[in-house]
Automatic annotation (TrEMBL):
The chain crosses the membrane at residues 42-60, 67-92, 146-165, 186-207. It is found in: Cell membrane. InterPro entries: LeuE-type. One of its GO terms (cellular component) is plasma membrane. Keywords: Cell membrane, Membrane, Transmembrane, Transmembrane helix. One of its GO terms (molecular function) is amino acid transmembrane transporter activity. Its main location: membrane. It is a multi-pass membrane protein. Pfam families: LysE. This is Threonine efflux protein.
C-alpha cells in the first residue's frame, strides 16, 4: 500500500531506538545488576516492568501528549525531581550493599515487587519520552496515516522488550553471576555512583528551570 510506511524506514527507526534503548542508562544498569545478583527470573520480571513503562511513554509520544509534557515546565520538573529521588534511593541501597564486606544471600522478593520496581524506574524517567519522540520523528511525517503511527510505535515497542530481554538473559548467565560475586563490592559501588550521578543530574535539571 502506498500510504504505508516502508520497511526501510521501519528498520531505520528500530535501529535508532535500539541504540538509545541499549545504552547504559539507569534502567539497563539496574537490570544487569539484578540479573547478576538475583538471577534470570527476577531480571525478566523487572525487565517486563521496564518495558511496560516504556510502552506507556511510547503511547504518550505517539498520541502527541509527549510533546505537551515536554512543553509543561512544571510537570516535567516534578517528574525529574521524583526520578532523581528514586535514583538516589537506588544509589543508597547499592552503596550500602557495597559497604558490606561479605556477600549475603539475596533477599527473596516477590515477582510483583520486581515488576513494579521496573515500572516505577522508567515511569520516573522523563528522558524516555524524549527518546520516543526522536525515534518516531525519524519515521513519521505530518501527513502519515494512523497505520504508519501504529506500525512505527509497534517496532519501537518490540525493540524495547527485546533490549530488556537481552540484558536479562546475558547478565544472568553463570559466568556473569560468578564475575559479580568476585567483584561484588566494586560493581555495586560503581552502580551506586552511576545512580547518584544520574540522580543529581535530574534534580539539578528540575530545580534550574
Amino acid at each position: 500500500m502506498a500510504d504505508m510506511i516502508d520497511l526501510t524506514t521501519l528498520l531505520t527507526v528500530g535501529v535508532a531506538f535500539w541504540v538509545v534503548a541499549a545504552s547504559p542508562g539507569p534502567a539497563n544498569i539496574s537490570n544487569a545488576a539484578i540479573a547478576m545478583r538475583y538471577g534470570r527470573r527476577a531480571s525478566l520480571v523487572y525487565g517486563l516492568g521496564l518495558s511496560v513503562a516504556l510502552v506507556f511513554w511510547g503511547v504518550l509520544a505517539a498520541t502527541g501528549m509527549g510533546a505537551v509534557l515536554l512543553a509543561s515546565i512544571w510537570l516535567l520538573s516534578v517528574l525529574k525531581l521524583l526520578g532523581g529521588l528514586y535514583l538516589l534511593w537506588l544509589a543508597w541501597n547499592a552503596g550500602r550493599s557495597a559497604m558490606r564486606p561479605g556477600a549475603s544471600a539475596p533477599t527473596e522478593i516477590g515477582a510483583g515487587r520486581w515488576f513494579w520496581r521496573g515500572v516505577i524506574l522508567n515511569l520516573s524517567n522523563p528522558k524516555s519520552v524524549i527518546a520516543w519522540i526522536a525515534a518516531l520523528s525519524m519515521g513519521l511525517n505530518p501527513n502519515d496515516t494512523l497505520l504508519s503511527v501504529v506500525l512505527t510505535t509497534l517496532v519501537c515497542v518490540l525493540v524495547a522488550f527485546f533490549n530488556n530481554l537481552s540484558y536479562s538473559l546475558v547478565f544472568s548467565m553463570g559466568g556473569m553471576m560468578a564475575i559479580y560475586y568476585r567483584g561484588r563490592r566494586w560493581i555495586e559501588g560503581t552502580t551506586a555512583a552511576l545512580f547518584a550521578t544520574g540522580a543529581f543530574a535530574l534534580i539539578r535539571s528540575a530545580v534550574s528551570r
